[in-house]
Specification:
It is built from five helices and no strands. The chain is an all-alpha fold.
Amino acid sequence: MTTTKRTTFATVWDAIEDSREIAASLRFRAEVANAIIEETRRRKLTLARAAAICGVTQPRISDLRRGRLDLFALDALIDMAARLELRTTVTVRRRHAA
């Protein structure tokens, strides 16, 4: 019987990305993207209408809904959220000592 070493991560983002900086960026982008997706669905917006409101093309909204976060900068997502009248906030604090 072979023994497998298990690794525990603080977040799923830390598990999929070696760099803490990139993991943090992915986490923030995912939070904003998820809020945008939820709001467009709550309003029952078509891809075309969501794109028009957000000031992007329909394929960009499609990319967002498919989870292609690598195609979006955080500031672009914040701009899209603002156009949907969503308020974004950022909290910066010191990490707990490990």
